[in-house]
Structure prediction request, 179 residues.
Amino acid sequence: MSMSPLTDFIASPGLAGPFGALMDEYARAAAEVCRVVAAIPPARFVEAVDGGGEFPTVQAICTHVVQAAYGHADHIRKALGIAAGERPRGKELVPESPEQLRPLLAAALRYTEATVAGLRADPAFAAEEASSILFPVSWGPVYDPQGMLEHGIVHLLRHRRQIERLFAGGLASAPPVEK
Prediction:
């Protein structure tokens, strides 16, 4: 791991403005979920779990968060009139072991970072204009780019918590939560 968990996931941490802040927090959330998943023994990563909801394994939860991160970025790209970029699809998004989540999620966040690069470059535009770029999503709400990034951050945090609760339910010993 690098000296900064942020640079594991995004190329330019610490930028000013709301999109700089959101990308930093997205990277922190990704680092947290990867820390929790890295503590899972590989055999348990693919083992069926009770309480996983629609995801039968921790591997399925991890695949979902990677796919969702790309999907959130693609919603923003479409709203901004940016073509969908080259990105992995299908089995390329499936981590085969706990350690494989980190590079997959890092690639998804760098894709997101590239998506909002223009918004990050001009914080004044981002603060004033981005809130007027609205788009509906398939699960119901209408978002602006900032709201979609906020949703992506919380999405990672919710699934990190889900995995931690599976640990507490006997999947494995949960790593301590950093404060």
